[in-house]
Structure formats: C-alpha cells, structure tokens
Amino acid sequence: MSNADLAGAMAKLEHLSDARAQRVLSLIEDLAELEALENADDLKAAHEALGESDEAQPWDKVKAKLDAQFGFPQSAS
After folding, report:
1. Spatial separation of the C-alpha atoms in residues 68 and 65, rounded to whole Å
2. Secondary structure of the chain: what % helix, strand, coil (to 5)?
3. Helix (H, G, I), strand (E, B) or coil at 24
4. Is the pTM of this model over 0.70?
C-alpha cells in the first residue's frame, strides 16, 4: 500500500463514527493476525514439502542438494 493510499484510508476513517471506526480497526487487526497465521502455515508446509527441518545444515550439503535438483555438475570432493 502506498503512502497516498494509506493517507486516503486514514482520512476515511476520520469521518466514521467512533463505534464504526473501532469495528473497522478490529477487522484490520483480525485480518493481519489471519495473514500471519496463513504465512506461518505456508512456511511450515513448504519446509515439509522440501523435507527440510529448522536445524542448520552445512553449506556443502545444501549446495549438493541444490546442484542435483537443478542439474548442475556435482563437485568431486
């Protein structure tokens, strides 16, 4: 959202009654929380789909996996 869009939205909120503005703000907070939950679920699903864990992996292991996945020649180490 651009600064102009944000300024326009804020101006519209100023013209609402306090009760209506509170409901709108509550909806915005709910949407932000829902988006955060969806992002967390998406990240978890992506990790599971890729067979990854939250543990750090050595670079050479990650690089070998990516090289194999994208068809790059494997280094002879």
Report:
1. 5
2. 75, 0, 25
3. helix
4. no
